[in-house]
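Key idea: predict the complex, not the pieces.
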Amino acid sequence: MAETLSGLGVSPGRAAGRVCRMAGPPELPAPSPVTDTDAELSLALDALRATASELAARAEKAPDADAKAILEAQSFIADDPGLHESVETSVRAGRNAAHAVDEACAHHRRALLEAGGYFAERAADLDDIRNRAVAAVLGLPLPGVPDPGHPFVLVAGDLSPADTVNLDPGSVLALVTEKGGPTSHTAILARARGLPAVVACRGADDIGEGTWVSVDGQLGEVEVGIGEEAAVAVQRRAEDERRRKATSRGPGRTSDGHPIKLLLNVGSAADLAPMGHAPSAEGAEGFEAEGVGLFRTEFLFLDRREEPAYEEQVAAYAAVFRATPGGHVVVRTLDAGTDKPLPFLGLAEETNPALGIRGLRVSRVRPEVLDTQLDAIAEAARATGAEPWVMAPMVTTVAEAADFAARARARGIARVGGMIEVPAAALRAGRLLEELDFLSIGTNDLSQYTFASDRQHGELADLLDPWQAALLQLIADCAAAGQAAGKPVGVCGEAAADPLLATVLVGLGVTSLSMSAPGVPAVRESLAAHSLERCRENARLALATDDPGEARKMIASDR
Amino acid sequence: MPERTVVVASSTGLHARPAKIFVQAAGKQGVPVRIRAGEGKPVPANSMLAVLALGAKHGTEVTIEAEGPGADEALDSLAELLARDLDAEENSRG
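Result:
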């Protein structure tokens, strides 16, 4: 008998197949006395060597240079003579193999953390090595993404970046996790790869290995125990759907022709190129988007201990302007802070980084960083003839907006805007639009701050559901302020990529939707199937419904 | 005991690729080499974990030491490696 589990649908689409579970980190059994020290030592060291070879083999198969370098470094560390020496010390002190591996990894982990800075970042490598080697000692399944040799639905507690490095989109059909929220790593990865995904799915932990399931990443439902035939039928329909969407083209509009700009979220010119190819003029055209709605400039600054030079910034911005047909690019200035630390900023540690110096607030302590960036954007615009729109992240007050606008306009930037991520700004959208030319709503942070819920907190995922009426109300207020002022108000959070929610956002009066590239075809298709009046009806329905899950279902069933 | 004191030249310090090149080179020497940062405790230079835990950044003064036949040659070649900016060499190769 099929049973339906409910969670949060975070990446739309349907898929069905057999379940493969990802093993969690192995638990240490109670310590046991060691009788044969030498045998115990070889057991531990063999496990580390096996881990090293397995990581080296994965590095060989890694899809890109970054993943390869990470895995090679991990393999190298698993073979480290210093680590082996610590294992030997532990075994000689009476620990069994599993405990010795655990203790040795913990010892070196501490040493790296004490070294601080980017040395401390390697501590996570040791956790992975520890989990693999301990599993090898205990004869448990290796943690990490399984490779059963057939397509499968991946079910896990949660997924970390390390788990997903080698995720093969050819064999993984869908993702289901017991934990995680709409902005968790799993959700972001799934949307980037176009994989249907359901997170915060209670009961996912109890789905047995090999069970046939079907996943609805829009409604957040997982049907467990369907037959193979039903699964094949779902897959066939999903395949047809994908083919149809791959051919979808043209600007975004409702069925009655009301235009909605469909834009891309990018981090660099490389994101505008078809996968794996050099940036080229047809980049964004390949995705059939109408420009870039969010150019996250911080990607240029990550991993840097010194601020990227002015010339380097000019070149990077110009590359994005050139790669965007028609040249419509919305540049967001550096969004960093102690939650997204950039070593060169030298910001102090904060006890509550989400509420501290981040986004535009960094300019309070390092104003010259923003000035240099604005200079570079203006120069890149002059060099390429582009007319970028430039916006600041985390604007909170009208005074902040006015200051930012003055600094940008002084450099000849014509269109200046702000991100709405803080409720204080959403509540004053009308006043902000007296200083600014446009607004862009970042739904991920706006949810976090409106619902006082950490974006990474799995237990609070339901509060971060973008269908929450309070969030939609704030979006509605901003859109209304935009219409009153005759100025554009877009949404560039992940909510924009939900095809059904897109109709609600349009109904609320939003003028553009910006998302990662794989989301565009489904949103375009959904809008094309709804009239503007129907979108407004959906918006009224969603605003009037207290329960986000119910709102989603009502509107989905009404299609 | 023969030793050499060198200032780390790589721009990321003894981290990532520069650390790997140094540790691999140290492991290939015929004699055990130890390394310390400033007045810290010497650690085996063929251990990536130990070398990373030195926390040696660009400009940190490190001392390498070894004893036995071939020690001086080993130290000379490793000191030469530390005094080069291995990050820049990587970048210039693209």
